[in-house]
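Case 419 in the screening queue. Each case pairs one protein sequence with one candidate compound; here the compound is pyridoxal-5'-phosphate. For every case the pipeline is the same: read the inputs, emit a complex structure as tokens, and attach any notable structural observations.

Predict complex for case 419.
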Amino acid sequence: MRNFDYKKNDLYCESVAIKDIAKKVGTPFYVYSYKSFTDSYTELAKAFKSIKPLICYSTKANSNIAVLTALVKKGSGLDIVSGGELYRALKAGVKPNKIVYAGVGKTDEEIKFAIQKGILLFNVESAAEVVAINRVATKLKKKASISIRVNPDVSANTHDYITTGKKESKFGIDMDTARALFLDKNRYPYVNMCGIHVHIGSQITTGEPFVRAFRKVMIFVTNLENQGIKIKFLNLGGGLGITYDNEKPQTAAEYASKILPLIKSKKFKVIFEPGRFIAGNAGAFVTQVLYTKKTEAKNFIIVDGAMNDLIRPSLYEAYHDVKPVMKNIKLKSIKSDIVGPICETGDFFAKDRRVPDFQDKDLLAIMSAGAYGFTMASNYNTRPRVCEVMVKGNQFEVIRKRETIEDLVRGEKIPSFLK
Ligand SMILES: *Cc1c(COP(=O)(O)O)cnc(C)c1O
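Case 419 output:
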């Protein structure tokens, strides 16, 4: 993880010792490197600079308004999947004409909000959604531009839960239905059907699934063009994988070298929607050891963070590296489970992992937690969501304060018939 390195025995984020952040904000917390977000964005932009794509960072990976603002200031657009994310995106100051909006279940209210704000494109996931957008746009007397999200029916060689481009998945529209929609586009006078969108899944570490999918899409587009349909936008989605353990994912430049030859004959405005690639290795989750427990069968390190804070290990059996925030060379290494306080056997960060024989109060960093970490947090077990901190150089600031128990019960009420 770039920008998360040891200086002597202390783990730093950029030029700030993580133990100093812990002293200031308590544990657990998320810590993000500003430079990691912006460097990954720039790396992708550079790799594709010959076609000047619109890069729309995928908000759902890490939607803190500070993170969005950092990327927007570098020129990024935003990919959103809800009215809530649209609200955040606008708070971060993104121009509406750099927003693309995906998701299989957009409500009329969300569609209305997005049309009124003038977003660039809806990424449409069903024929029924085209009807809905046309209906809402007609009422508003304002045309809406859309891309059709096609489902290319390719496997992404990734975890089943993050595969989205197989025909059994709920996402996108099969190519025959998509073609019929384009040929019928005059039936939707308030819809400007002008783009194709494809997103086949997440944490894809090789170019091959992308190439298979985009080849299919290019044939599809060429056929449409031969039938007189003009395609202005080609949105190739996100999905670029990162290193969690010992994966060797393609670099942005390698990805570009595979993808550019497929699309360069056409004059589309190309859009990308990277999430994990930008945010994943820009953040760590820091937690403190509460107790250690050695049983006949296992060693357990019980920490103050839990699955409600970072659910990826429980949900996808995802691997996250665990590092001591302060190295103690005197500790021998042992095989341990690292678990949280939640009343679920699935509440773990690591299983049978060789780690230092951590002691009470030691600080651990769960690495590569910048994407799908805080954004998937919940309040299960009435646990307040943790605070988030951003580091830039030798400065750090809290970018979301820790919730309180009062925050959690606000809005709850004992009904009059129980009084
Ligand atoms: C989640 C999502 C992305 C981002 O995926 P990553 O794997 O994080 O890059 C991009 N596009 C759409 C439509 C998504 O749903």
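Case 419 observations:
- Residues 34-276 form a domain with the TIM Barrel fold (CATH 3.20.20.10).
- The radius of gyration is 23 Å.
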